[in-house]
Every structure is written in structure tokens, then in C-alpha cells.
Amino acid sequence: MRHLKTQIRITMVLGVLCLFLGVLSHLALTDIFHGEADTSLEWNIVRLSAIVFLAFISLALLTLRQTLRAIS
Known about the structure:
Elements: H1 2-33, H2 40-71
Helix pairs in contact: 1-2
């Protein structure tokens, strides 16, 4: 049970991080759309956001599966 609680906490932290990165991605994509001169930093932010989003979704699904197993 202790492992599951830790996993839930990590999922919650990743969720908050995804919210923050969602805002940063929006700002980065706005700069890219408006044709700023150098957008390499903006693209790196979008790439990092995509990786964190993927990690969050994967961990959330894994945590839900383990929670279902624990309560049944």
C-alpha cells in the first residue's frame, strides 16, 4: 500500500507539472506561429512538454490499474 501511495503522489506532481508546461507550450506555440526569428527554445519547450505529458498519462493509467487491483 505504501508503494501505491507514493505512486499516487508522483502522479499528482506530474499532473501539476503538466498544467504548468501546458501554459508554457501555449506561449511557445504562440511565438512559433507569429514567426519569431529564433524558435529553437520554443520547440524544445514543446518537445519537453510532450515527453512529460506522455509520462503523466502512462503513469496515471498504471496507477489507476494498480488502485483497481488493490481495492478488489
